[in-house]
């Protein structure tokens, strides 16, 4: 059995540096998504107005792009500004699609169209995975990039499913424990999503 690692050899600087970088990214994310957070805080029943908040969540596109740029060493606000239009258009298109699919899903439940609900749910998951892949790769929204991201998301389904699960856990944490969900988890969760998406979309898989 190997001896315990001497305290002097434990990379405390690297650990504290990573923690500090994560906290800084979390604060930047909060600032970038502040209109959505303020609207949620001022609305007594946000679930009743979920389509509005789904569209407002398009602001998370540029915020996520900033975080992904920070992971790539380019700086949060540099990535946020340079990719604002591209990421906002991608997130807005995804949000509109989610609203349409979500309304269809609500209307199908308990009716003769209930058999379509699993398909709608799968398409919703695919929209989320394709959107995160486009944002992580910095691709512009186009028919070609959407089809490529969708194909690779299906081909590497386990990475797409892992990203969906991570984002689901992050959303659940924000709802259940806002302090933890907003100030601790976003950076590490988005890093996992970014790493998975970059691997999924790497040139060797095209």
Q: Give the low-pLDDT segments.
A: none
What proportion of the residues is helical, as a percent range?
Answer: over 70%
Figure out the total of helices.
Answer: 11
Cα gyration radius (Å): 19 Å
Largest sheet: none
Average predicted confidence as pLDDT: 88
**SSE run:** HHHHHHHHHHH
Number of strands: 0
**Which structural class do you get from the secondary structure elements?**
mainly alpha
End-to-end separation in angstroms reads 44 Å
Proportion of residues in β-strands: under 5%
Count of individual domains: 1
Looking at the structure, what is the overall shape?
Answer: globular
Written overview of the protein:
- The chain is an all-alpha fold and 206 residues long.
- It has one domain (13-205).
- It is built from eleven helices and no strands.
- It is globular, with a radius of gyration of 19 Å.
- The N and C termini lie far apart (44 Å).
């Amino acid at each position: 059995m190997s001896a315990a690692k001497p305290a002097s050899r434990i990379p405390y600087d690297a650990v504290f540096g990573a923690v500090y970088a994560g906290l800084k990214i979390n604060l930047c994310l909060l600032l970038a998504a502040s209109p959505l957070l303020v609207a949620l805080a001022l609305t007594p029943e946000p679930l009743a107005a979920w389509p509005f908040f789904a569209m407002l969540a398009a602001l998370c596109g540029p915020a996520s792009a900033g975080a992904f740029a920070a992971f790539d060493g380019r700086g949060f606000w540099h990535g946020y500004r340079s990719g604002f239009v591209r990421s906002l258009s991608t997130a807005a298109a995804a949000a509109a699609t989610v609203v349409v699919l979500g309304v269809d899903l609500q209307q199908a439940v308990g009716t003769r169209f209930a058999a379509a609900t699993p398909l709608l749910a799968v398409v919703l998951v695919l929209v989320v995975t394709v959107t995160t892949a486009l944002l992580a790769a910095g691709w512009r929204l186009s028919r070609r990039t959407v089809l490529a991201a969708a194909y690779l998301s299906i081909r590497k389904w386990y990475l797409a499913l892992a990203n969906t699960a991570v984002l689901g856990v992050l959303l659940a944490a924000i709802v259940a424990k806002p302090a933890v969900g907003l100030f601790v988890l976003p950076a590490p969760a988005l890093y996992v999503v970014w790493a998975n998406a970059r691997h999924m979309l790497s040139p060797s898989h095209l």
